[in-house]
Amino acid sequence: MRLVVGTALVVRGVLGLRGGPTIGSALVHVLATVAGILLLAGLWTPIAGTLAAVIELWFLFSQPADPWISVLLATLGAALALLGPGAWSVDARLFGWKRINIRDRQS
Q1: What does the pLDDT read at residue 98?
Q2: Nearest C-alpha neighbor of 36 from the set 45, 25, 27
Q3: Are 91 and 42 in contact (CB under 8 A)?
Q4: DSSP result, 45-61
Q5: What is the band of 16 on the pLDDT scale with cuts at 50, 70, 90?
Q6: What's the pLDDT score for residue 71?
Q7: Number of H helices, E strands in the chain
Q8: I need a labelling partner for 83 at 20 to 30 A (CA). Which of 2, 22, 61, 101 fits?
């Protein structure tokens, strides 16, 4: 999931920068590219996922294009922010992979 969202954000950010956007729009496209790169690497995944969700919501309300890709990427970004980095990421190597074990209730 990280790879799909990260790739989509990088492609969307780079394509948005190619058209000669205004300063405000260029900043949002650069942030989308940075969030995509962070998600691809698995670095700061909760922060990058939240940033991706906020950026895609901004795209949803500010651009008249097809809204469904923004809805999908915002939802996936929020899910990544809640799920965390996963086993194969820089975050897992730096901070360890957190695993929650739920014990059976004993009466």
Answers
A1: 67
A2: 45
A3: yes
A4: HHHHHHHHHHHHHHHHH
A5: confident
A6: 93
A7: 5, 0
A8: 61
Domain ranges of the chain: 2-95
Q: How far apart are the first and last CA of the chain?
A: 39
- Which residues lie closer than 8 Å to 53 by C-beta, 6 or more apart? 74, 75, 77, 78, 81
Burial of 8 (0-12, 13-18, 19+ CB in 10 A): buried
Could you give the percent of the chain with pLDDT greater than 70? 95
**pLDDT above 90 for 19:** no
Q: What is the pLDDT of residue 4?
A: 92
Q: Categorise residue 48: left if φ over 0, alpha if ψ from -120 to 50, beta otherwise.
A: alpha
Q: Tens digit of pLDDT for each residue in 42-62?
A: 888 889 999 999 999 998 998
Q: What Rg do the C-alpha atoms of the chain give, in angstroms?
A: 16
96: left (phi over 0), alpha (psi -120 to 50) or beta: left
